[in-house]
UniProtKB/TrEMBL annotation:
Topology of this chain in the membrane: Multi-pass membrane protein
Coiled-coil intervals, chain numbering: none
Protein name: Phospholipid carrier-dependent glycosyltransferase
Keyword field contains Transferase: yes
Length: 539
C-alpha cells in the first residue's frame, strides 16, 4: 500500500471515529430527556401519534384514521415498536398493555423521534461532505447540539422526523446534480412522498426537487431528460405515499377536512403577525437558539455559495422555501421552523469551514475561535435544555399538593396546562358569571370550591390585553375577589441566554450550580390556586 493510500485510510478512519463519538453524544443528550414530564403527559400533541397507534391495535388494522398532520409514518413505526413490546415484554395485546400503563408507550414513540434526531446528525455529516470534510464535521456538530433539535427529538411529534427527511431530500438532490439521471430523481421524489406521510408541508420539498431538475435541464439543454426525470420523481413520490399510507390517497375527504381544520386563521397566542411578522418570528427563533455568530455564519454561507456559484448548494434552498411557506400561513409556532434548521446549519458550516480551512493564518485562527465559541454555546444550551426537561414540573408539584389538600377535578374549576389538565389547553370563563356589581360568581357553587390557573393559559391573554380585555378583566377579578392559597413557580429564572454567546460563563456557572444542588430545580408554568368563598361571602 502506498504512503498516500495509507494516509487516506487513516484520515477516513479518523472521520469515522469522530462521527461515532458524535453520534453517541447526540444520542446521550436526547435519551437523557426521554422521561420528560413522567408520570404526567405534558405535551399537547403526542396523543396524535401514541393514541392513534393504540387505536389501530384496537381495530386490528394497520391504517390510521387520524389525518391531522398526518403523522402516519411515526404512527406506524410506533405501532411496530408497541407490538414488539406488548408481545415479548408484557405478553399482552397492545391495547391491554396500554390501558394498564401508557407511559412505556409514550417513551417508545419518543424513542422513534430520537432515532430520527440522531440519524439527522449522520445525514448532516454526509450532506456537509459534499462540500468539504471540515463542513461535514461542523454541520454534524451543529445539528447534534442545536437546542431546538435536541428538545424536539424527545417528543413524539413530527417536526424532527420531517427535518431528517427534508435533509435527505436535500442530499438526494445534491446527488442528482452530481450524477443526473432518472434514478436519483426518483429517490428524491420518493423521499418527498415519505415526508408527506409525516407532515403535509413536506410537499414543498417537491418544489426544490423540481427546481433542481429544471436547473440541470437548463445547464444540459435537455428537455427530454427534464421530462423523464420529472416524471420519475413525481411517480416515485406518489408510490411512496401509497406504500407507506395508501389511506392518504383513498380517503382524500379525511385529508381535505384535516387540511381545512389545520389551516385556520386564528389561534390564541399564535396569530396576528402577518407574513413579514411571521418571517421575523422564525428568524428570531433561530437566532436565539443558534447565537449571533452562527446566525451571521448562515448569512455568510449563502453569500459564499452565491459568489462561488456552487450549484451543488442549490438544494439547500429548500430550507428557505420551507421558512417562507410557513411564514405565509396565518399562524406561527416555533416548532414549525424546525424542519428547515438543519439545512440552515449546513449553510453556516460552509461559511465556518471556509475560515477554518483558509490559507491565511489569521483568518484560520479567527475561524477556529469562532467555531469554539459557537459550539460551546450550543453544547451548554443543549445541556441546559435537557436539565430543564429532567426537572420537576410545577404541574406535578401542584398536583401532589392538591391531592394532599383535598382538591379534586369534581370540586375544582381549572384551565388547561394545570394539575388536572396538564397537557392540553382549556379555558374556564364559561363556569362563571359577573353580576351587575362586578362580583364574580360560579355557576355551580357546589363544584367550584377552588380555582386553578396556569400562566400557560392566562399568559396568552395577558400578552394581548387590548385584544382580550374581557378575559384579562376576568383574571383580575379572580385575583381580587378570591383567596390565593398556593402558588407554584419555576425556580429556574435564568435570563442570561438572551445575551447569547456573552452568557456562556453565566450559563456554565448556572449549570454547575444546578448539578451540584441537592434539591431539584422546578420548571413549568406558574400555577395559582384560589379558594372560592361561599356565595354569601362574595362582595
Amino acid at each position: 500500500m502506498s504512503r498516500t493510500a495509507r494516509i487516506g485510510l487513516r484520515s477516513r478512519s479518523a472521520e469515522h471515529r469522530f462521527l461515532i463519538v458524535l453520534l453517541v453524544l447526540a444520542a446521550g443528550v436526547r435519551l437523557a430527556a426521554v422521561p420528560w414530564g413522567f408520570p404526567l403527559l405534558l405535551h399537547p400533541d403526542e396523543w396524535a401519534v401514541v393514541d392513534s397507534a393504540v387505536e389501530m391495535a384496537r381495530r386490528n388494522s394497520f391504517e390510521p384514521q387520524l389525518f391531522l398532520r398526518p403523522d402516519h409514518l411515526e404512527i406506524k413505526l410506533s405501532y411496530v415498536a408497541f407490538a414488539f413490546y406488548a408481545s415479548f415484554v408484557v405478553g399482552a395485546p397492545i391495547e391491554v398493555a396500554f390501558d394498564a400503563d401508557p407511559l412505556p408507550f409514550y417513551a417508545m414513540s419518543r424513542l422513534v423521534t430520537v432515532l430520527f434526531g440522531v440519524s439527522a446528525v449522520a445525514l448532516g455529516y454526509v450532506v456537509g461532505r459534499m462540500f468539504s470534510p471540515a463542513t461535514a464535521k461542523l454541520a454534524a456538530i451543529f445539528i447534534a447540539f442545536f437546542p431546538p433539535l435536541v428538545t424536539n427529538s424527545v417528543y413524539a411529534t413530527p417536526d424532527v422526523p420531517l427535518a431528517f427527511v427534508l435533509l435527505a431530500v436535500t442530499y438526494a438532490c445534491m446527488r442528482y446534480l452530481s450524477t443526473p439521471g432518472w434514478k436519483p430523481a426518483a429517490w428524491a421524489g420518493a423521499l418527498v412522498g415519505v415526508g408527506i406521510t409525516i407532515k403535509y408541508p413536506a410537499a414543498l420539498a417537491g418544489l426544490a426537487v423540481a427546481l433542481v431538475i429544471a436547473w440541470n435541464a437548463v445547464q444540459q439543454r435537455g428537455v427530454r431528460d427534464f421530462l423523464r426525470d420529472a416524471a420519475a420523481s413525481f411517480s416515485a413520490m406518489v408510490l411512496a405515499v401509497l406504500v407507506i399510507s395508501p389511506v392518504l390517497v383513498t380517503n382524500f375527504t379525511g385529508v381535505r377536512e384535516a387540511l381545512e381544520r389545520e389551516s385556520r386563521s386564528t389561534h390564541l397566542g399564535a396569530d396576528q403577525l402577518g407574513f413579514w411578522g411571521n418571517l421575523l418570528f422564525y428568524g428570531e427563533s433561530f437566532a436565539r437558539s443558534a447565537g449571533i455568530l452562527l446566525s451571521v455564519g448562515a448569512i455568510a454561507g449563502v453569500v459564499l455559495l452565491v459568489r462561488r456559484r456552487l450549484s451543488i448548494g442549490l438544494p439547500i434552498s429548500l430550507g428557505l422555501i420551507f421558512v417562507i411557506a410557513m411564514s405565509a400561513l396565518p399562524l406561527h409556532w416555533e416548532r414549525w421552523g424546525i424542519p428547515a434548521w438543519p439545512m440552515v446549519l449546513v449553510v453556516a458550516a460552509v461559511a465556518f469551514a471556509a475560515f477554518v480551512e483558509s490559507r491565511n493564518q489569521r483568518l484560520r485562527r479567527c475561524g477556529v475561535a469562532v467555531v469554539a465559541v459557537s459550539v460551546t454555546f450550543l453544547v451548554l444550551s443543549s445541556i441546559q435544555q435537557v436539565l430543564m426537561l429532567r426537572s420537576v414540573d410545577t404541574r406535578l408539584e401542584s398536583q401532589e399538593w392538591a391531592t394532599r389538600n383535598g382538591l379534586t377535578p369534581t370540586n375544582t374549576v381549572f384551565e388547561g396546562y394545570s394539575p388536572f389538565r396538564p397537557g392540553s389547553p382549556a379555558t374556564l370563563f364559561s363556569h362563571f358569571e359577573v353580576r351587575d356589581d362586578g362580583t364574580l360568581v360560579p355557576l355551580r357553587p357546589e363544584a367550584t370550591q377552588y380555582v386553578v390557573l396556569s400562566s400557560a393559559m392566562y399568559g396568552r391573554f395577558e400578552a394581548e390585553p387590548e385584544r382580550y380585555k374581557e378575559q384579562v378583566n376576568f383574571y383580575d377579578k379572580v385575583a381580587a375577589q378570591y383567596q390565593r392559597i398556593a402558588t407554584f413557580e419555576s425556580t429556574h429564572d435564568l435570563r442570561s441566554t438572551d445575551l447569547l454567546e456573552l452568557s456562556i460563563p453565566t450559563v456554565a456557572f448556572d449549570l454547575a450550580r444546578w448539578v451540584a444542588s441537592a434539591e431539584r430545580e422546578k420548571v413549568g408554568p406558574t400555577i395559582e390556586i384560589y379558594k372560592v368563598p361561599h356565595e354569601d361571602q362574595l362582595e
